[in-house]
Specification:
The chain is α/β, with parallel strands linked by helices. About 35% of the residues lie in helices and about 20% in strands. A 7-stranded parallel beta sheet has the order 16-15-14-17-18-20-21, sandwiched between helices. A 6-stranded parallel beta sheet has the order 24-23-22-25-26-28. A hairpin with a 4-residue loop joins strand 10 and strand 11.
Amino acid sequence: MSELPSLLTIVLEEPGTLDRESAMYRRLVAARLRFDAEFSILQATEPLTTRSIGRLCADITSKYVVFMRTSHQVSANYAATIIGYLRTRTVYLAEPVMYTGRIAGNIAGTAIDDAYHYARDTDIFGSVFNTRRLADALEAIGDVDRAGLYTSYRLYWSIEKVKPLPAGYSVATETKAAIGLQLSTEAKRLVPVIPTSSKQLRLYLLRFMALFLRGMRAQKATAVSLEHLRELVTAHNMTEMLAMVEPLQPFEAAWIRWLADPCATTHLFKQLSDKDSYLVFLQDQPVEDPARLLYELLFGDDVLAIAKTYLPRTLRPGHARPGSYNFYQRPISPHSSILFFDRPLQADDNAEHLYDYFRINHPEFTESYFAINPKSPDWERLEKKGFKLIPIFSTEFYEKFLISDLVVSSQIYNIRYRGKSFANSRFVYLQHGIQLNDMSDWVLSKYFDVFIATGQLEADYMAGLAPVETLNSGLPRLESLAREPRNSAHLLFMPTWRFNLNQVSTEQFLQSRYFQAIDQVLTDPALLTFLDATDRRLEVKLHPNVEKRTAHFRFSERVVLSELSYREAISSAEMVFTDYSSAVLDASFVHIPIAYYHWDHAEFFREQPYEGRLDYEEEGLGPVFHHHVDLIDYLVNERFASEDPLYRARRERFFKGVDADRINRKIVERMLAL
């Protein structure tokens, strides 16, 4: 270690083979041509923890240290800017402009405001630490998790403000904001309880608190005490900044309010037409109605139970306040404005099919609109069908949203405008798919008045999360699919995605088991011979996240990348197979045989932000294959051609309660009664 340069050591956290093709690594190596004597690159083959960082600081002799991953992104001038700054002064901390998504084209134009500070990832990555000062701080704050080390370091040395340098660094993922973070079992506090007047730091702490609480819903137990959390919430007056938390993490916002005032156990979560939805927090107390229990979590020696309850609207805080506008006060009538939408650039999902039914069967509702991006290829098609279209997320859209009495969508977006949001107005969530996995944490973070379920299995699961809001009607597109004329001409393969591949380089993607398993199917000699001999095609619908990698898959005359919509591809398929995609359930609903190919069943859910809920072997609506050879044997011997009574019985049980002829009608009856 004595040969390391005196200015900067870049520590790359890469437990496996160093990805030398990543954009980050290539930019760092290119910078060595100019700054070879100024910095060196050190690979950390073990995951970085507070302890391992302490050991590194004891060994590194350079004045500064920065931690990175090759899956992250740096702007082209990152190294030059950082080194140029460090050469001329001694600092405790230096950092670029930090991003969670794409690095902005004009970094200098990034607004460094409260929203920036709250959204900024505060892990150790990308910021340059003074090595000796970090080592000194670790002697005092070595019991915090690595995720809290950056903020703890700033609190410890009273670094209240840091002006970002004109370079960019991105962790290239927003996943953490959605799933939170889970601390190491050794961590007994988030950060040291050191008061600060810095709003920057208080916003960092607020986000850290929200992410920790979100992660606790999955982690279930921690050594961190509730008393410590209350100290942090109170010391930094987090409740006055909760407007930052509320839009994306409303569950955690209510939780922080309870931490600030544990005597107030019941907190409003979502306004509804009749009874409002509340979260109840009980420390070391039993829940009155166990059926309403959402979580039971262990904080040190304390047990925290979180439950759900419904209370009359008249009990809502501020209900009778003159200045409080009630978006439910106007009943839904033919004069109401109603907004429908699917994805911004893609329709042909549940909202389109429900809107089509609604405009034909309820022409008296003249102010119902379908929102979509004018650049979408579906705009012209929908216009020809007679849809009343408005550009989604435009000024016109938000003005319609403000005066609308109801919003109906297959997507949940964080829409807020002039005091209106889904927290205080009517929203029917049609879903895009069916909940096969345990998505409880995600569902409980969302606002909706009606949640459309498909079949008894899903409805029973949702009843434990949203018993008042759940409607077992089935997805609107299923009614359309059931009416489609059958013209079976091909087999259909619909693999889903793997979250651990979100940031990998092309080289790593091609080496992944995911790519190799799919490509092996597409190029299997026995399958190609079968397709040729029977004059069939294998249509492949790749997940949208794979579209930029499409060229790497080896398609052929008989194995083609499908250009059909999902509905068209499914309705014209002879059979459909997938790994884990719930989209194949559409095929099963209309009696098209399905199958599952679980080539990575042992580790699949370890890499996903959710847990498995469906036992595919015992409850799946088609056979499950774990090995390539078994799947190919099933296909080429056409064992899918004859219906298996076992899967017919499972299908009937799975879709119990769904009438294919009344799906849209049932949803419309419920939404107009809100």
